Each structure stands twice: as C-alpha cells, then as structure tokens.
Amino acid sequence: xxxxxxxxxxxxxxxxxxxxxxxxxxxxxxxxxxxxxxxxxxxxxxxxxxxxxxxxxxxxxxxxxxxxxxxxxxxxxxxxxxxxxxxxxxxxxxxxxxxxxxxxxxxxxxxxxxxxxxxxxxxxxxxxxxxxxxxxxxxxxxx
Length: 143
Description:
The protein is α+β, with helices and mostly antiparallel strands. The chain is 29% helix and 18% strand. The two termini are 21 Å apart. The relative contact order is 0.20.
C-alpha cells in the first residue's frame, strides 16, 4: 500500500478487522496494522493500547473517513475505537515501544508509567485511559 494512513485505532484486532472489511466492501484499499511491538510490552507486564490501526492509502483517507462516519451512524462500527476526548477523532496515536523505547526507559530497565495519547486532528495530548466519547458537540463523528 502506498503511503498507508491510519484513520482509526483500536485496542483489539476484531473491531479493526470489521471496520477494514466494511471499507474493502466499498472499494477502499483498507488494511489493519499492529503497531504494538507486543513482545516489549508483555515482557514488562504492560499491554499496548490503540495499536491496531485501520489504514488506507493517503489519497483515500479523507473519502474513507467520510464513509466511516456514515457506517458509524448506521452500524456503530467505531463504538470501540479510541477517540480524542476533545474533538472525537478516531485518528489517535498511543506511542508504542518502537517509537518511545529510548526516551521512556529508565536506567534500571523499567518503563515510564505514563504514556500519552495524541490526537492527529486537534493535537491534544492526554495521559492514561482514553475517555469514551459517543458524539462530538456538533452531533457528528469527527474525523
């Protein structure tokens, strides 16, 4: 896939696969990518978050998000997606081991306890568990 662009993040593979499947049914080149570096996290007794990414080619991202909004309104496909607490976007990153390993490891080999979520749409950063948001103030799912 040329320039894979994440459009939704999930903690579990199953809902990500369902969303990608619905997008493929409507002719999008959608796939699910696991960005966790899971072995690193398991070795430290932690679990990755938001690491199953639904990706589409960059050229299809805006149109795919539009379709996702429609699917979500009708079928609630994004009910378990990680969302930004400010704008409701599903384009949320949670830095995984490969991205933050060097900056979060302490000299004794332990890992920093807090990791921040980052919204790709509004740039909000927040720590801990993502808040559950059903709809944004406008009544529509934000991209």
